[in-house]
Q: What sequence folds into this?
């Protein structure tokens, strides 16, 4: 590769004394401040401004309705329109999860259960939200379309234990998801 | 001097040179090599590192050649016309005429001047074809199938499958989740009809209860009407089933195999010393499977031994040292306090009033230190507890102690359990007032009565589990189970083998050898100089002739024969007879 030698620009006297640039910058900032006080900041509307500048006053104001479909929030388990737990505890997500946030205790579905033919489902399913990095690998690897990253992002807690999402909580967040492949219906 | 050896060798053809040694020349993937006459093609290929994919073939079973996955291309020299001399290249090999049709590698043997191709268009097409047929009716069960991760069908699908199915009809439905025996679950849809399980039950276990019914795509593996797959060797069928058709009830849905760590070790339930692999995740053992050792257990192991590990993290597991308080109740204490008070209690008795009862389940290292313990105390009363059961004429030996031979060698005593009776009566008569019991429950296994034990002035127990002896003991020291420690044992046929640590000892449990060492030090008041188990083994090697020049690492995963006892393992005898008869490859 050719080496291109760049010449530093030759500064004029006015530029060498940078006081002029300082004044320029100050005037620009002042302009914005005045516009902001008058409620006329550029882009304030698009950014759901609370009125003062472009700042959104979180948490009173939320960005939620603007979240794109591909937003990656908390991972959660879903049931389908038949009320079936989709997860079969294959533990692939547990394996793929980069920070090892998932811990599954597999279990057998009792023979009197209407979905006994699926044979397997998690006895316990825990995601440690302190560890989760919202990468979406679990969703991608799942062969049963059972785990999805939802739009929940406000995952907070006062104790470490609060940050551990157990199976109940995961289904709560996940809810029902329709239109998925129901491979267990007719093939078995 | 025309016929010097080198001159004659130059004249000889490769086929004659090989024939002198009972071998044949075979070209595998372009390289000429020599193999013993009668070697199967699949084994010849395996020995030079080209693994031929296969399902039904198992070296320890007959080869019916029914899966067709092992097809390879072969060729032989063209037959010369009458009177024509065979052509040879500069190395003396005849040219190979490749056959347009493939042959199965598992049931055909190598021949002189044969050529074998384990890859190439023909072979690859065959494999793809076989895979497509196998997958036509296969269920999409991998997410719930215990075999996933160690499934041959999955592996070969990746290697030779299509990725997308062209099959548009309905799949054949077959029985799923069938209860065919107490320890095995059958899923017929996953079965690829390789018949390994059928052959195993027939040829090795001698209980032919499995078979196929129906034909074609409806072929179904089933158990004989009115019978169950309840042989004590039934779980071996789950090991050899290349797919998830047969799975273990005990391991069912416990853990995915890709999380499990494998530790090679040995079984401690009888004198055979079956080689095993312990599969763990974190500090939990999930399953035990046999590990191949053609001098001990071939590829198999009995179910009763395989499943005997749940006690390790069971309810009765001891996890901290206990000492009896004034009101006769056990209280948790620390190791150092327990050892110090046990040692001073031991010293308050005359040496002759003390007996040490060890176990044939202890390792050589532990037994060696136990002898040192008895010597330090100054007592002659030292024994192990004999443990006999019925031999099953396959792998299980009548001697259920895994290390009787080791006790004989390490204690230099041909009858290490001979003093048990005299100790028992001396305890009854009150002549022996103190017992140190290592790894044995005297009430259940050694014929002591509870009254005998209550007469004792001191009872020290080292054990893994709470038991009637421990509940009477003044000091209970928790020790490591077989999967939690390292050490060596000698099996009944005189093979020195290694135990390895698969999981960390539970709670405050200590390795037995450390506990014994510390007890000796507490009695003598010396500072110990043994820091590693290797040091213990080193002193064994220095003191016991049979162990000379050995170290723990030199023993190796397959063990080392250190003495000949003449003990025969019936299953191996059967296997050798089948091999001699040419039924199996071995
Ligand atoms: S989103 Fe990523 S880090 Fe979070 S649970 Fe799924 S795989 Fe693990
Ligand atoms: S969520 Fe999906 S990937 Fe994870 S265990 Fe359940 S089925 Fe398997
Ligand atoms: S046998 Fe193998 S391919 Fe078939 S479902 Fe089980 S893991 Fe998947
Ligand atoms: S159950 Fe397994 S071992 Fe038996 S025939 Fe079927 S695939 Fe082969
Ligand atoms: S392995 Fe050769 S036919 Fe099955």
A:
């Amino acid at each position: 590769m050719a080496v291109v030698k760049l010449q530093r620009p030759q500064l004029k006297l006015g530029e060498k004394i940078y006081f002029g640039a300082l004044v320029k910058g100050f005037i620009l900032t002042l302009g914005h401040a005045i516009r902001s006080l008058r409620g006329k900041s550029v882009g304030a509307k698009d950014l759901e401004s609370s009125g003062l500048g472009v700042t959104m006053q979180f948490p009173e104001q939320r960005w939620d309705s603007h979240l794109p479909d591909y937003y990656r929030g908390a991972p959660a388990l879903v049931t389908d329109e038949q009320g079936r737990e989709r997860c079969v505890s294959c533990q692939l997500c547990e394996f793929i999860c980069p920070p090892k946030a998932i811990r599954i205790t597999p279990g057998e579905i009792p023979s009197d259960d209407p979905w006994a033919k699926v044979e397997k489902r998690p006895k316990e399913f825990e995601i440690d939200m302190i560890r989760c990095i919202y990468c979406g690998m679990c969703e991608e690897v799942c062969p049963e379309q059972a785990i999805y990253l939802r739009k929940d992002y406000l995952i907070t807690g006062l104790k470490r234990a609060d940050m551990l999402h157990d199976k109940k909580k995961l289904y709560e967040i996940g809810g029902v998801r329709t239109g998925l492949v129901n491979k267990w219906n007719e093939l078995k | 001097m025309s016929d010097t050896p080198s001159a004659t060798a130059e004249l000889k053809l490769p086929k004659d040179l090989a024939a002198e040694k009972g071998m044949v020349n075979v070209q595998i993937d372009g390289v000429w090599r020599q193999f013993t006459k009668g070697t199967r093609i699949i084994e010849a290929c395996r020995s030079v590192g080209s693994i031929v994919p296969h399902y039904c073939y198992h070296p320890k079973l007959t080869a019916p050649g029914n899966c067709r996955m092992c097809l390879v291309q072969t060729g032989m020299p063209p037959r010369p016309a009458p009177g024509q001399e065979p052509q040879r290249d500069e190395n003396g090999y005849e040219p190979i005429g490749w056959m347009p049709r493939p042959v199965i590698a598992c049931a055909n043997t190598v021949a002189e001047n044969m050529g074998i191709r384990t890859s190439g268009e023909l072979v690859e097409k065959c494999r793809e074809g076989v895979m497509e047929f196998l997958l036509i009716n296969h269920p999409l069960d991998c997410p719930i199938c215990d075999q996933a991760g160690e499934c041959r069908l999955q592996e070969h699908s990746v290697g030779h499958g299509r990725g997308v199915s062209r099959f548009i009809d309905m799949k054949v439905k077959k029985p799923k989740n069938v209860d065919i025996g107490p320890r095995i679950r059958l899923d017929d849809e996953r079965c690829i009809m390789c018949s390994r399980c059928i052959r195993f039950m027939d040829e090795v276990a001698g209980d032919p209860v499995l078979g196929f019914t129906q034909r074609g795509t409806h072929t179904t593996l089933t158990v004989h009407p009115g019978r169950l797959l309840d042989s004590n060797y039934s779980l071996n069928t789950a090991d050899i089933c290349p797919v998830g058709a047969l799975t273990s009830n005990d391991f069912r849905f416990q853990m995915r195999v890709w999380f499990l760590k494998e530790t090679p070790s040995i079984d401690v339930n009888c004198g055979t010393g079956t080689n095993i692999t312990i599969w763990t995740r974190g500090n939990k053992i999930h399953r035990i499977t046999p590990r191949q050792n053609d001098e001990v257990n071939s590829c198999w192991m009995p179910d009763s031994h395989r499943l005997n590990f749940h006690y390790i993290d069971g309810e009765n597991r001891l996890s901290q040292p206990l000492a009896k308080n004034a009101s006769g109740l056990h209280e948790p204490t620390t190791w150092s306090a327990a050892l110090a008070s046990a040692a001073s209690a031991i010293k308050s008795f005359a040496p002759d009033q003390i007996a040490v009862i060890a176990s044939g389940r202890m390792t050589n290292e532990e037994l060696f230190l136990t002898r040192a313990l008895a010597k330090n105390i100054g007592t002659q009363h030292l024994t192990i507890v004999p443990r006999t059961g019925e031999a099953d004429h396959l792998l299980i030996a009548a001697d259920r102690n895994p290390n009787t031979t080791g006790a004989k060698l390490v204690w230099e005593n041909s009858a290490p359990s001979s003093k048990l009776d005299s100790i028992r009566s001396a305890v009854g008569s009150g002549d022996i007032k103190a017992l140190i019991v290592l790894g044995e429950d005297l009430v259940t296994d050694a014929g002591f009565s509870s009254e005998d034990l209550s007469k004792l002035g001191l009872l020290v127990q080292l054990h893994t589990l709470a038991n009637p002896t421990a509940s009477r003991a003044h000091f209970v020291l928790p020790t490591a189970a077989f999967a939690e420690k390292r050490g060596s044992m000698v099996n009944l046929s005189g093979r020195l083998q290694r135990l390895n640590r698969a999981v960390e000892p539970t709670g405050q449990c200590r390795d037995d050898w450390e506990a014994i060492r510390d007890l000796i030090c507490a009695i003598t008041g010396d500072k110990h100089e043994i820091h590693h188990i290797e040091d213990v083994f080193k002193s064994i090697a220095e003191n016991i002739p049979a162990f000379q020049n050995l170290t723990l690492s030199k023993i190796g995963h397959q063990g080392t024969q250190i003495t000949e006892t003449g003990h025969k393992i019936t299953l191996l005898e059967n296997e050798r007879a089948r091999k001699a008869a040419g039924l199996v490859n071995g």
Residues 19-37 of chain A form the longest helix (19 residues). Residues 75-178 of chain A form a domain with the Alpha-Beta Plaits fold (CATH 3.30.70.3270). Chain A touches chain B at residues 88-92, 94-95, 106-108, 117-120, 143-144, 183, 187-188 (CB under 8 Å). The radius of gyration of chain A is 27 Å.
